[in-house]
Amino acid sequence: MIRATVVLWAAMLASSLSNVLTSRGMRARGPLEDYSPGHLLRWGWGSVTDKWVLLGLVAGAANFLLWLVVLSWADVSWALPMNAVEYAVTALMAMWFLKERVAPRRWAAIGLIVAGVGCVMGSW
C-alpha cells in the first residue's frame, strides 16, 4: 500500500501540474470567440503548439504512466477516490503559479472531498 500511495501522489502532482501548465497556456491564447473554420484552425494550432500547453501535455503523459503503475498495484475502487486529493493540490498550485484566488466556499468544498479521501484511505 505504501508504494501505491507514493506513486499515486506522484501521479496527482503530475496531473495537477498538467492542469496548471495547460491553463497558463490557454490563458495566454485567450478565449475562443470566433467559430469560423479559419479562426478555429488558427486558434487550435496556436493552442497545441503553445509551450505551456505542450509542457502540460508532457506532465499529463507522466500522470497517465504513473496511474498505470498505481492500477497495477491497487484496487481502482481505492485508487480513484484517493486521487481526489488532486483537487486540493491543483488549487494550491493554481494559487501559487497562476495567482488565482480560491474563495473560502471552494476551500470548504475541497475540504469535504479530502475528508472523504480520509475515510477511504484506511479501507485498503
SSE topology sketch:
Blueprint: H1 2-29, H2 37-48, H3 51-73, H4 76-82, H5 86-97, H6 104-121
Can you characterise this structure?
- This protein has 124 residues and is an all-alpha fold.
- It has one domain.
- The chain is built from 6 helices and no strands.
- Helix 1 packs antiparallel against helix 3 and helix 1 crosses helix 5.
- The chain is globular, with a radius of gyration of 17 Å.
- The mean pLDDT is 94.
Observed structural traits:
mainly alpha
Coarse morphology: globular
Biggest β-sheet description: none
Average pLDDT confidence is 94
Provide the domain count.
1
The portion of residues forming beta strands comes to under 5%
- Give the beta-strand count: 0
Following the backbone from N to C, one meets helices and strands in this order, namely HHHHHH
Radius of gyration based on Cα positions: 17 Å
Taking the alpha carbons of the first and last residues, their distance comes to: 8 Å
**Helix content, binned percent:** over 70%
Q: Please give the count of helices.
A: 6
What structural class do the secondary elements suggest? mainly alpha
The low-confidence runs, each spanning 5 or more residues with pLDDT under 50, are: none
